[in-house]
Fold this sequence. Notes:
Order of helices and strands: EEEEEHEEEEHHHHHHHHH
Strand order of the largest sheet: 3-9-8-7-6-5-4
CATH class of the largest domain: Alpha Beta
Structural class: alpha+beta
Oligomer: single chain
Number of domains: 2
Helix content: 40-55%
Shape: elongated
Amino acid sequence: MKKIGFIFGLAAALSLLAAWKPGGPAETKSANVPTYTADGKLNLPANYRDWVFLTSGFGMNYANGTGNNPMFTNVFVSPEAYQGFKATAKWPEKSMFIVEIYSPAGHGSINKGGHYQDSYMGLDVEVKDSSQPNEWSYYNFNPGETVGAPVGPGCNKCHSEHAAVEHTFVQFYPTLLDFAMDKGVVRPAVSIPLNPSRFLKLMSSAGWEKAEQAYYEDKKKNPESDLLGESALNQAGYSLLREKKNNEAISVFKLVAKDYSNSVNAYDSLGDAYAAAGQRELAVSTSQKELELVQKDGKLSAEQKQQFTSLAQKRIAEMSKR
């Protein structure tokens, strides 16, 4: 869509709403609707920064997985469109999706690592408007422009083939994705990898066996996904421990130890879960396994080895008390 060479998951929306008040209907036109010039260009909504913020992205690239010029994106949707989608699970007519584009910066002020947003590079807009030649159309605005020209058919093709809901990349909008999945409106052709929140939700609603089955099915279906790796599973397990769901936490940590059998941290976490559940013998044997792995692990620093050794020995001592 943009000459930078990538299109980011567009989002958002607008709608004309009729406001009903006691005593009869009163028409109120929202300011958040697409308007056009005589030659078919789109006028930029001046107030779009007051809309609902959906998500940010950095360096997203749909072509080859790498970007020579990674950018930040901010996605906004009008309150009317957002509320309409949450009410019907369908984007209403006149929906408009705005994606700001900013260049990244790494050094400035007190920042010592990571990146923050710097220079405004323009924006892209997606509109759902059946009065136009295509129900979904796309426009590009360079910095300083208040009128955007429509772009070619490439955007429409990409969105029609890969967007999760209608022509919108809801798969990248965390505030809407689970809602869309619950409503069953995600297109079957779009694969949504399992993540920690959906994994835990499945555990709660369907039990451990179903959750474990879904985990392994997801690994086969989405082998490149990093949403439910060792670290994510470890965090999910500890969230269960904090909720006093010890047995569920043990199941998660056993899965981690199975799939990451050489991980010292996996056995440390499993030892914690057994200890929390009062399973003394298993806590001791798991901690002993942790000590064995500490000695074999050549990637751990001396400080890390000392830390894991101390944790395992302390757990063994506490669980051996009678």
